[in-house]
Design goal:
8-stranded mixed sheet, 10% strand
Length: 420
């Protein structure tokens, strides 16, 4: 291990997690001096003045930077890469990452990238870790997989295009749904767990995961949404599904709403052969993780966000179970609650009835529809500045509850991981 030196350029939360795990496994590390404060206390660390020193002397260099900035960073340091070194990145969108490597790295440099499909606060053990052998010998590829094995993750070999398509299927729309919920609650000046309308069962997942997403950095989600070609189409379809279903509710078109929802459910759950399978989430699990006191009687909800998700999958021809091997913890939770809604006997019919007859959530649904369309427009325009503004406004609103939501969210993820 001492013969191979790993360099990391970019020390955000994921970069630090990688450094901790690899350093603990005995690998030697090099970092730019700008990040000295972040890595003091790590073992076997060599600190350089900047990324040039890291590039010149490291055998495997990991660019741990935002997808939005990777071209600029690789353009600056890539030309100094050590001869015959291996270079990779861990961005969530591989199209711009691979393009940057091909554009700026010398021809003798090998390229093996990766992407851990979880956040920095999740234990990587048994979580999916995509490895992309873009331009490398078998020997170099084996070295990288051996280095990454210290995470204890499930390594999945894909090419860059397949990675981006699958992450769009499993992450982009999931994030859009939760971002829209948070935006809608802020617009209504609601802390949802403080009312009986959003406590218990499915509502627990909505609240906890929304806060978990907003507790992270905005760029974690912006790069995946804006730079991934497949993601824009899927986020747009989600907004269209939300809008179409809400219009059917407003117009009193109950039969059409029922036909559409049940057709979508048959495609996603029946065609996937899930009818006889056990549910990913149970009542006991859903009720366990609440940020508020669970009321004796719950306020019925039409769950527009969940109905639109299944409608979106149907319209795009996506069977979410096909991607379980590359799914994130958040996606598995989201799939778990949609499955619960559509497959729990009688619940879907009850929700459709509520959607037509009960107007309790109409104002919430209106703001949610506005929010979903707003996020879709932001992504379609490729506007990172607007994305950041929208994200951080809601982030500030919910910030006081992030520590508790993170704790509860970690427990939820542990449970869903054990069941999937």
């Amino acid at each position: 291990m001492a013969e191979t030196i790993i360099g990391i350029i970019g020390m955000g939360l994921m970069g630090k997690m990688y450094a901790r795990k690899m350093s603990a496994a005995g690998w030697r590390y090099e970092f730019p001096d700008l990040q000295r404060a972040s890595i003091l206390g790590y073992h076997d660390i060599i600190i350089f003045e900047d990324g040039f020193g890291v590039s010149r002397s490291s055998d495997y260099i990991i660019y741990s930077v935002e997808a939005e900035t990777i071209d600029k960073v690789v353009a600056e340091y890539g030309r100094a890469t050590k001869k015959h070194a291996i270079v990779g990145g861990q961005t969530s969108c591989k199209a711009p990452e691979i393009a940057a490597f091909e554009r700026h790295l010398p021809a003798d440099i090998e390229i093996v990238s990766c992407h851990s499909l979880h956040g920095p606060n999740v234990d990587p053990k048994d979580q999916p870790l995509v490895v992309i052998r873009h331009r490398a010998s078998q020997e170099s590829f084996n070295l990288v997989t051996r280095i990454l094995s210290c995470f204890g993750s499930k390594q999945v070999l894909l090419d860059a295009a397949a990675h981006d398509r699958i992450t769009a299927d499993t992450q982009a729309v999931t994030h859009a749904a939760f971002l829209s919920m948070g935006t809608a609650w802020r617009a209504n000046n609601q802390f949802p767990w403080e009312t009986t309308r959003y406590v218990g069962g499915i509502e627990n997942v909505k609240c906890n995961i929304t806060l978990r997403i907003y507790s992270n950095k905005w760029h974690v989600y912006a790069g995946l949404a804006i730079l991934n070609p497949s993601a824009k189409q899927q986020i747009r379809q989600y907004a269209e599904s939300v809008t179409d279903l809400f219009k059917l509710m407003l117009g009193g078109h109950g039969r059409e709403l029922e036909r559409r929802i049940k057709s979508a459910g048959d495609f996603v759950f029946t065609a996937a052969g899930r009818r006889g399978e056990a549910l990913l989430l149970s009542d006991e699990v859903l009720d366990r993780f609440s940020l508020g006191r669970v009321p004796q009687e719950r306020t019925p909800n039409n769950h527009l966000s969940l109905l639109a998700m299944v409608d979106c999958w149907w319209k795009l021809g996506i069977v979410p179970y096909d991607h379980m091997i590359c799914s994130t913890p958040l996606f598995r939770l989201w799939l778990g609650v949609t499955e619960y809604l559509f497959r729990k006997p009688g619940l879907l019919d009850e929700v459709i009835t509520i959607a037509m007859a009960d107007h309790t959530f109409r104002s919430d649904d209106l703001e949610f529809t506005f929010a979903a369309r707003g996020w879709s427009d932001c992504v379609s325009f490729g506007d990172f500045s607007s994305y950041r503004d929208r994200f951080e406004q809601t982030q500030t609103y919910f910030a006081p509850r992030f520590p508790e939501a993170t704790r509860v969210g970690n427990e939820m993820i542990k449970v869903i991981h054990e069941k999937t």
